[in-house]
Amino acid sequence: MLTTQKAARHASLVELAVQGIAPASEIDHLVRHSWTRCIENYALDPLTPKKATVVDRPELQARREQHGLLLSIARIELLGLRNRLQQNDFGIMLTDQDGVILHYVGDPGFANTAKRSGLREGAVWSERELGTNGMGTCIVEQRSVIIHQNEHFLAQNTELTCSAAPIFDMQGRVVAALDISGSFSRSQTHTLALVEIAAQNIENRALLESCKRHYMLRFHRQAEFISTPGEGIVAFDDNGMIVGANRSALELLGLSHHRALCGQALEAIFDTTMSTQMQLAARRAFRAAPLVARSSQTKLWSAIQPPERDARSEARREPIEAPAPLPCGPLATLEQGDLRMANNIRIVRRVLDRDIPVLLLGETGTGKGCFAKAIHAASRRADKAFVTVNCAAIPETLIESELFGYKAGAFTGATREGHPGRVVQANGGTLFLDEIGDMPLPLQVRLLSVIEDREVMPLGGSKAIPVDIRIISATHCDLMQQVRDRRFREDLYYRLNGLALRMPALRDRQDSRELVLSLIREESRDRTPIDIDDAVMRRLLQSPWPGNIRQLRNVLRTMIAMCEGDCLTMADFNEEWLGASVSHALTAQSPADLSDLDGDDVLGDAERDALRRVLESCRWNVSAAAVQLHVSRKTLYRKMFRHGITRRELREATPQAGTADGNASTRPHTPTSFNN
């Protein structure tokens, strides 16, 4: 609470600064100009307490609807900011151009200060209303500001430190402000940087969303930075007239204001023609093309994003294949606010279209497969095949032919037509080697040869097939330990480990709440939107999630299926889903259900791990494991075959072909002869 004496000293400081008297003249000129406006234009008194004006609910709702697109985008950024901040005692706010707080996200420890200061949705924090403050002053100055404690005009606000950045529309008008306020003892330069990045992200996403009916030229001095926050974006219509741009476009072109771009012909700004841009827009795959700015002769790299047509205009046009998405869009959907995931995405964007192999590390179920698919979808190979090979799910005796292919008659049981193999199927695209740590040593030698020579020799073949593939691999194993144990080749490890990224476990992620909400949206896409009760959310966030995101998705999918209303409550929840192991979940299924599960099911990896755990707990006694799982031995063998469980201990305990429940048809088929 501010004492009368401190308030009087603050008022004296304001008066001296406005008069330009030392040492108060050392106050930042931006703050002094704002203080002068407060006295001369707004007739405010630093000592007079002033409650924040709060607009009524209908007006607040109308202002939110006016900024609907911006608000929906900003809410995601505010959640991300909340997870990134290391301090306690803060509030994050989005205001409109009049300083009215449209959305507020706050730390619980800041609640009392926020209430006392009037930081709440609907409150008006314009400079005219509450004097010099982060939100109001950044709107007036149209620039980012830090207003630290005594730099506030009103003495009542001097316990706050505010870091704020304006948000501009595509014509350069201030439409909102983003602010972080808290009881910070020091000026928050790092916090301001986070606010500025978030404001830039909001601007870029709002521009991309609002200009979907226009062509968009996206450019940067370096090709790999297209579709990152620093890219320049220029939107233009069918006649080649520029209708909007972001601030990065101005910076890259050396221009000071949107007026220098908006309303200008594209050909007046860039050394290009509309026909050239139309040809580039018609291409399916993303290819960065050179571009030159006319005024400065700056050399740039660009990509053209064509407009989205509505159903009626689309029906009148000849059907064409939709262009591949620009890079990083698929990656952006994976970022919910976790710092480690954001860093992974930032790093991988730098090598998105370079021939650098990526190694994804992390526990089972952390989303390594989804991340690999997003890398592929964001790259220039997006229009080519994405081929997955689960090195742990294919029996050791078959993985060589599956991976490298075979010619007709290469071995007993080979098809009459032969098989090209997964490597050849991925030619031009991406080969994803999941669970690479389980690849047998002999095949590691062949894989290394394929990577180095860029060609593959099918089994029984005499001519190598050239291939162009991007390799992404993943494992939950400690590959370096496997190298030390001589279970993984050191040369292959370093060949695959061009860029290693660790996927955080769900229990360690900072964006668990956002992930839950995102998964609910995905799983309820075909029905009425689903909400979630706070009690259920708290219970989900308390779980350690040994099965990670895969387990969370399965629990939510079941809850949504059981939910009869439009909100998930504790009535739709079963505590056993969190407390029981996956192996226990398997025992609840009938033998028919267990045998019919598809190999690509989201629980496939969890099922394989569960089977291994049960078998190990039974010391690889198949009969005992079958009893524990309440399935027949035949069913268990079928599951082991499908998941590639061929441990030496298991083979020693396996009945010979033809014995009871040991039917040869359920055992892996071993190639017996090869044509050389």
Outline the structure in words:
By secondary structure, the protein is α/β, with parallel strands linked by helices. The strands form five sheets. It has a five-stranded antiparallel sheet with strand order 2-1-5-4-3, with helices on both faces. The C terminus is likely disordered. The chain has 30 helices and 19 strands. The radius of gyration is 31 Å and the shape is globular.
Secondary structure layout:
Elements: H1 4-19, H2 29-40, H3 57-66, H4 68-84, E1 90-96, E2 101-106, H5 111-117, H6 127-130, H7 134-141, E3 145-148, E4 161-168, E5 174-182, H8 189-210, E6 215-220, E7 232-236, E8 242-245, H9 247-253, H10 266-269, H11 274-281, E9 289-292, E10 299-305, H12 311-316, H13 329-332, H14 339-350, E11 358-361, H15 368-378, E12 386-390, H16 396-404, H17 422-425, E13 430-434, H18 441-453, E14 455-456, E15 465-466, E16 470-475, H19 479-484, H20 490-496, E17 499-502, H21 512-523, E18 531-532, H22 534-542, H23 548-562, E19 567-568, H24 576-579, H25 582-587, H26 591-596, H27 604-617, H28 622-629, H29 633-642, H30 648-653
Parallel strand pairs: 11-16, 11-17, 12-13, 13-16, 18-19
Antiparallel strand pairs: 1-2, 1-5, 3-4, 4-5, 6-7, 6-10, 7-8, 9-10, 14-15
Helix pairs in contact: 4-8, 21-23, 27-28, 28-29
- By DSSP (H or I, 4+ residues per run), the number of helices equals 30
Secondary structure class reads alpha/beta
Characterize the main sheet.
Answer: 5 strands, antiparallel
- Low-confidence stretches are 310-328, 580-603, 647-676
Q: Helix share of residues? A: 40-55%
The main sheet orders its strands as: 2-1-5-4-3
Average predicted local confidence, pLDDT: 80
Number of E strands = 19
